[in-house]
Amino acid sequence: MRFPLSLRLAFAGIFENRIRAFLTMLGIIIGIGSVVAIMAIGAGAKSLITGSIEKMGTNLIGVMPGAASDSGPPVSVMGITITTLTYDDAMVIKSLPNVLGISAYANGSGEITAGKQSTDGTFSGVTAQYPFVENHNIEKGRFFTENEERTSKKIAVLGVDMKEKLFPYTNPIGQDIKIKNINFTVIGILEKKGSSIVSNPDNQVLVPLNTAQKLLLGQKHLGLIRIKVDGEEKVPVTMEQIKRTLRYRHEITSPEDDDFTVRSLDQAVDMLGGIMEGLQFFLASIAAISLIVGGIGITNIMLMTVKERTREIGLKKAIGATPVQIKNQFLLETLILTGIGGLIGIIFGSLISWIIAFGAQKMGYTWNFYISPISIIISIGVAFFVGISFGMYPARKASKLNPIDALRYE
């Protein structure tokens, strides 16, 4: 049989049992769609990290309480409270060479009210240099001063989303809000910045650090110090200076005994990238299981097809069809099934990825929709590999049928 005739016969056999063919392809569709979606979501997540870094700047250093390995987060990120990092540590770091500014943080959550409006939200005690360090400008009003921070003034600056929740129709400047039933006067509104990988600064309330520690949190330790350095090239040397300073202040003689973690944004990106790549591999492995299930389904269906078409096979052999031609005919049908399933899977995975990217962008995240050509090539290759691997046995079984026995088959 020539190839065009074999192709027509293969499509005729598939369309004759359309429902069965679709159910056969379903495992391939889900598996290929999952692989494409996982690759695209991974690319989108990387763009989210990159976008967050661009918003924050590449000349930032973070100091967190608790030790960490070179590739892992500090223990404080796991919810363990570490009380060794203090405001005095931040002030000493501020005086180091190449340091342009620092912002110290103490975070909490609770009920925030303004008149009849109420919401459960987060608040952060920060130092006066927060707008400069975080590249976050004031849209209306002003930020608090260092003197107001030292004297524990009960004043607050709202993120733009928090302003809409508490004061949807009025100007909040000069008005009072309550955080944990303590009155604060609103003195400013921050510009909209958008969500980052770790927080949403538009949906929080900022108060002076000393005020938050004394009145709202009842603590003296910090959750984070962020340092802005005079140039990206000076980040490594400044990190070493910070480590030496904190070891001296905390009376630590060996780096193995550090009770703090110093990280640049590049290091944080590398760490998150490694975690994401591991997660992508894990999810892709799960998706591969559905491809195996789909391949087993193809084998079962093709075996059933061989049984149903036994007389047809006998007739073809009787008029001169060779075993190789019979095998290629059934193998071609299998490849068509997996090829169509792979194509539908690519479209399905791309659609899912686009929906996720669209939703993330609507929520304010920097999330790019990108389908890697490599993922398409891999998906097509995997689809045909599954077709050949799981279709070979039924095709060979069909080619080995005895023509006389096949013609007698009822």
Fold blueprint:
Layout: H1 3-16, H2 18-56, E1 60-65, H3 87-94, E2 99-114, E3 117-126, H4 130-134, E4 138-141, H5 146-150, E5 155-158, H6 160-166, E6 176-179, E7 182-190, E8 204-208, H7 209-217, E9 224-229, H8 235-249, E10 260-264, H9 265-308, H10 310-318, H11 323-362, H12 373-399, H13 403-408
Parallel strand pairs: 3-8, 5-7
Antiparallel strand pairs: 1-9, 1-10, 2-3, 2-6, 2-9, 4-7, 5-8, 6-7
Helix pairs in contact: 1-11, 2-9, 2-11, 2-12, 9-12, 11-12
Task: Report low-confidence residues grouped into runs of 5 or more.
Answer: none
Number of E-type strands: 10
Order of strands side by side in the largest beta sheet? 2-3-8-5-7-6
Mean pLDDT: 81
Task: Give the count of helical stretches.
Answer: 13
Order of helices and strands: HHEHEEHEHEHEEEHEHEHHHHH
Distance between the termini: 25 Å
Write up what this structure looks like.
By secondary structure, this protein is α+β, with helices and mostly antiparallel strands. The chain has two domains: 3-53 and 270-408, no CATH class; 83-258, no CATH class. The protein is built from 13 helices and ten strands. Strands 2-3-8-5-7-6 form a six-stranded mixed β-barrel. α1 (3-16) packs across α11. The model has no long low-confidence stretch (mean pLDDT 81).
